[in-house]
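So, could you explain the following?
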Amino acid sequence: MQQHNTVFVGIDIAKFKFDVSFSHLSKGVTYDYTPNDIKKFMQVLQEIQPQLNCLEATGGLERKLVACLHKHQFDVAVVNPRQIRDFARAKNQLAKTDQIDARTIMEFAQVMKPRITPPLTQAQQKMRDFSSRRQQVCKMIIQERNRLDSAADREIAKLIQQSIRAYQKQIKVIEKKMRQLIYADEQSRERAAILQSVPGIGPTTVALLIAELPELGSLNRKQIARLVGVAPTNRDSGTMRGKRTIGGGRVGIRKGLYMPTVVAQKHNPKISAFYKRLVESGKPKMVALVAAMRKLLIILNVMIKEGKKWNENVMKA
């Protein structure tokens, strides 16, 4: 097969299969999501040596294939599905099938040249898996508490309470395991020491940032804010004229930074002063809080980049 070093590959992953679109071919290919078909796909990529493989973050389904692509030293970009949807709308692409989705992902890679996703170390992957499980369990606790509020039968309420206690116990096990993983990995241990030196940042947030945001410290302030989804975006259409919004990015990180920012705006002098200044200038409290979250994230990014612990007098982010 002919070498194509400018080929872009779009991959649309489902539970049992994945559809692939190649920029140098008009027709896509469907593979079973099995070790045998993944091996066939790797052989094809070895022959064509694509410039970039692009796929959506699908909540974990993509991890096995991404790990395999990294193992074979292929460049990979794992992008937010919202970016692909916005790109499809911009192209007026209304039809939707798995092959069309793969084609759209490939064209997005070709046009937008998304940032390459670095491979995770074994420790980082394990931490991410436990972090993901923690988020799942927290969600189930919220669901069970909602059910408890509407449970009329006493015996049913008792069963729900037992379920909540079991989930809370599991969270303690997960958090203990994440602390062990961080302590066992030298780089993670150093990052944890830096992050936890910041007023408002506790062990749970530290574990979340280490597991889910390995890019922290390697990007500039605009890039890290955009990656997490706290960069303000102008909205100048119709009734939204003059409005600025946030969105997209890594929702789990954004949610995880909310409470630490609330704590920081009360107990972290740097964040507190920034927040108060915005509120006193007339900004709504939620807008000021989001801006404080962005500032906190940027400070953390600078600290990791420079390898320095918190020092209020030298933090200029």
